[in-house]
Design brief:
It contains 3 helices and 7 strands; from the N terminus they run βββααββββα. By secondary structure, it is an alpha+beta fold. It is globular. Helix content is about 25%, strand content about 45%. Strands 5-4-1-2-3-7-6 form a 7-stranded antiparallel sheet.
Length: about 110
Amino acid sequence: MSLKIQLFAGPALLGTIEAKVVDVSMGVIGGTLKPSDTYYTNYQSFFRAHLKTPDWEGLAALELKAISSLTGEITAVGGIDITDIEGFDEVDANVCGIVFQQLNLLFPAA
């Protein structure tokens, strides 16, 4: 089972993920990000550069959040990870450290 999750940087929509449970014990869901035009225009260069030289302050300033139509904002205690490698067409995204109660609402069979 997958669930559509929207990813935002502040008010800007980065795109959507058809999310699946990646690791139930760690509360991780994720999948391939379908980036928005805003992602390509304003954020892709940051995420690619962040993979080469981490910019934790810049990442925190983005105020990343994940939204589900089932539960609203997903509490990602472990943060949100976006992996965008130059030369590859797919962008991966994970929402990490979701508390069990919220994960169970999102994926009851998990």
